[in-house]
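Re: the pair you flagged

First of the two:
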Amino acid sequence: MDMQSVNPLNGQIIQTYKALSEKEIVTKITEADAAWLLWKQTTFQKRALLLLNAAIVLRNRKEELARLMALEMGKPLSEGRSEIEKCAVVCEFYGAQGARFLKEEPVHTEGRKRWVCFRPLGVILAVMPWNFPFWQVFRFLAPGLMAGNCGLLKHASNVPGCALAIENILLQAGAPPGVFQTLLAGSGAVAGIISHPVIKGVAFTGSTAAGQRVAGVAGASLKKAVLELGGSDPYIILADADLQQAAEVCVASRLVNNGQSCIAAKRFIVSEEVEAPFTALIREKMMAKQTGDPLLEKTQLGPMARKDLRDELHQQVLENIRAGAKCILGGNIPALPGDHAFYEPTILTGIQKGMPAYREEMFGPVASVITVKNDREAIRVANDTSFGLGAAVFTKDAELAEAMAKDQLEAGSCFINSMVRSDPQLPFGGIKQSGFGRELGAYGIREFVNIKTVVAE
């Protein structure tokens, strides 16, 4: 079946791509396996050189790639440039540090030589989403290639141009044929690819429901999986917080990537003492965001990636209002020309347990405000979710904030007085229904390796 990239600004088809047949997919898997037999024997220096070259290519093509994201999924140009820069940084990071992370570790005992070695597994499949179409892939491929694995990418069907561009970037950087390939295929092909005996593991980023299906297939084949799934990140604003700073960070986090980020701020859990001024501040800041064509430099908020996603979000908003929430900003599909996927920046207040915004992920520019009486209730509400990806707390009490972040908040990443973000140097991932395993940092590069024990008498 053909695949199309559609401009969410106006609904126009950008380009049509021919999806691979089952036979063509198997051919590419076989090519990847053959490439791995050679790639696993390369030195760390050669692998690092590929990544450092990729960083150069990324920066040289930054404008082109940012424009491609704007066209295919609506990301504003400024955010697209930042995404490409982050991809270059992760390539440089693993190029510089990967060999150290995978250095053999001697275990000293009397009478025996013992080592722990880290060796590549083989061909790893990446199933990736559209919202950060370059970053999600590069945070997988940089550590993977540095570890000596080969990669196959099954990207989201609405960003085929980005998917093919990534393979082209690696080839331009000097990757041997077959080391990293894009598979233009629909979601129906994923189970068969995972089950293929050549595939040794799968990295998945996407919804919890889809992650459960991927994990099921991987588990049935006894293959390693790393899953980064949905999130409903709580941002706790305590009574002593710097409200101006908190509001600025919270709005930036809520609207990043047009509100379509797993680690965006989604639930604002606010002390009742400061709920009114905080809500007024975020309303003011959200209203000030410039909405429009993502190809225009002045645009801060573009359309959502697809109309069906926008319509699903709108229905969630309406369900909350019917359940008793108050909409103090937005809540509508804007009356703009063209077949667009825009949604108004929206704030819902009065969110209570049982409402969709309390229990579900709102994947778009919608902020949900939950009022609490004290710090203890704030923690309880923050943890009262099936998700556990990120969390943040805003307070001037450093000791209290650290205690909350380290010991009380149930999330893979906890930030104090700043927005949750991924960093190449730090492990990233979630708990509960937000997935398992870690990407990035020293922990990430060791996910898809054989941690081998060697003992010599």
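Second of the two:
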Amino acid sequence: MATNAYFQCISGCDEKHGLDEVIYRCPKCNNLLEVIHNLDELKKKSADEWKETFENRYKSNEFPYSSGVWGKKEWVLPGIKNEDIVSLGEGATHLFKTAKLDELFNQDVYVKLCGNSHTGSFKDLGMTVLVSQVNAMIKSGRPIKAIACASTGDTSAALAAYAASAGIQCVILLPKNKISLAQLIQPVSNNAIVLSLDTDFDGCMNLVQKLTTEKEIYLANSMNSLRIEGQKTVGIEIIQQLNWQVPDWFVIPGGNLGNVSALGNGITLLYELGMINKMPRIALAQAQKANPLYLSYQNNFEEFHPMQAGKTLASAIQIGNPVSVNKAIRALKKFNGVVEQASEEELANAAALADKSGLLADPHTGVALAALIKLKEKNIISKNESVAVISTANGLKFADFKVKYHEDTLEDINIRYQNKPVEIKADISEIQKIVNKKLEKNK
């Protein structure tokens, strides 16, 4: 077992497991595992030396450091050989910041565009790590035939792309008619075995765990801690892009809840290695129709009850029984975190409001932005605090959502920012009339 990083139970059970073991839960207590890094080894470099290393690698032309994830290799998967890494240029995405966005939200707001990645979502950050580790395991002789996941869309797209690049077969379990067409076609195009099941995501998740009890099929969902290792780089990268200054708040949408613990893990490493001198607060945003963690938060996390998630525009977080709930609660407690919810109307209008600044916000980013608005109204986030919002996917994956919004055909939603195309004759006088009318209205 490599001593620089290993699996260990989040409940503190002493047994350590190698990252090349096919294991997802603690054999003693059945809780989830996490990757533990050797801090003594990492502290052999000073904070300034780490900053210099990361700055030199950022968007480098040298493989694998062109990746925002693998630029932090020693903090992610230190034992892997570069030739075993499967990278598609993930990470190193833009931190969106404009005066118009600040004006619209009356706040110092940054939006991390994780959707500007190879398959269009933040899931690439974790999948490059997991598929790279499996690639190394197969090369070393492990009899792994395929990698499998349950998905609400983005996870399947990421797994299919990275598995195809590595030449590894993958199996995708999707809930039938519950993901966007753009999300469905990605794994189909990348030659995955795609199974469309008459159930919801929680049903798919239950079945994929049964499928992967056979060690020849490797589990790729976020209950596998290798995924968390790649995803944790998003917070590190945001702080690097802010010249190593820490925003007061991070706001992140949550479904299966691996992402919030990943965010916390990355920021914690920065703090423990002396690269930042304060910890931010974290706000976790859920869709009101799939809000089990929000309900638990109302009782200070004393109890958590899974739910049957209702249909929501934020389909990727339509999850009622998140597998990473314990990790999420631990992270939120550590970061003095809060949980907020957003209705369908709130998330749709928040996404459209942000779009007026030049963004194309997906519905899940809409959940996060709606949560920001509500937390400001409750005076939990003050207007003089800086906020980094994690945008998890590319809005182009949800074009149907955008079209229906501006056509005002979304059910039971009061549209506030409609901008419907005006159909007129191809006549210059008619064009001038409409343009002048619109310009006068927009003064």
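The chain is about 40% helix and 15% strand.

-B.
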